[in-house]
Amino acid sequence: MRKKDIIMEDVVVEPMTEEFILWHCLHGGPLSCYTIDQWAPDSQMPWERYRKRNIPLLEKLTRIYGACAIVARDGGRIVGQLRFYPKAVLDMKGSAGFCLQQDYSAGPADDFAGNDFPPLAQVKDKTLVVHCLMTGSPQQKENPHQRKGIGSRMVRTLIQWAKENGWERIEANSFEDVPIIYEITGCAGHTFWKKLGFSVVGRHPHPDLRDRNPFVIMLEEQAKSAGISSERAKDQIIMRLDLG
User: Fold this and answer.
1) What are the residue boundaries of the structural domains of the chain, listed by start?
2) Could you tell me if 51 and 36 are in contact, meaning their C-beta atoms sit under 8 angstroms apart?
3) Which CATH number does the domain 3-242 belong to among 3.90.1010.10, 3.40.190.150, 1.10.10.10, 3.40.630.30?
4) Residue 49 belongs to what H/E stretch?
5) Which of 165, 152, 196, 149 is nearest to 67 (CA)?
6) Quick check: 81 and 36 in contact, CB under 8 A?
7) Distances from the Cα of 48 to the Cαs of 37, 39, 101, 161, in angstroms?
């Protein structure tokens, strides 16, 4: 049996529950109930404040909608995450960028969990939006969980879950197939989504990629190597899958 097959069989892909809330992401590698609340005392990240904000928010979303993430679990460790939220919630004041490891306005407001989130029966636009997709830690040099089909399995699990729970479509933000986009942002290239049945429904220049900074310079260099124009590489591509 190949190593890929062994990893695929061992990893369980399922909706996140309140039993273990994945309140921050996998940038530092897989997380478990024993490690998620551990961080260096001299860390520049305000982890305690993010924890205080994120856990009530994710618990509330899970109670109202049934789930807000798909996780890939290898034993007791979370090795993959796909976070998704109702478009109706993302359109609310205070949601902002919804990144759980950033302050407002890149992340949700500290009091965002205090909002009244509409139950699905009252939501007119029954669209789920994929916020980020990550297997292992894309920023680590050694990542045995990448390119093993775990990301595709999480998307397929989301599709099935969404159909069973009354959602009508799924949207995902993507970019051209340039490595640094996945490594830093947690977004997948549009080819990944097309293979899973999604279609391009729009594209526009991403406002955060206008300035020339180290990230944009690296993006342009990788795009050039792949034969992609720098203008197209800085476009955000909207992918959609209708579930009807």
Assistant:
1) 3-242
2) no
3) 3.40.630.30
4) helix 47-65
5) 165
6) no
7) 9, 10, 11, 32
Instruction: Classify residue 234 by burial, with Cβ atoms within 10 Å: 0-12, 13-18, 19+.
Output: buried
What's the pTM? 0.91
Q: How far is CA 198 from CA 128, 131, 137, 173, in A?
A: 13, 15, 25, 11
Beta-strand relationship, 127-135 and 169-174: parallel
Q: Which are the contacts of 196, defined by CB distance < 8 A and separation ≥ 6?
A: 152, 155, 156, 159, 241
Is the backbone of residue 30 left (phi > 0), alpha (psi -120 to 50) or beta? beta
Tokens 């029966």 appear where?
Answer: 121
Tens of pLDDT along the chain (244 residues) come to: 344 444 556 899 999 999 999 999 998 889 999 999 999 889 999 999 999 999 999 999 999 999 999 999 999 999 999 999 999 999 999 999 999 999 999 999 999 999 999 999 999 999 999 999 998 775 566 666 677 799 999 999 999 999 999 999 999 999 999 988 877 777 889 999 999 999 999 999 998 888 889 989 999 999 999 999 999 999 999 999 999 8
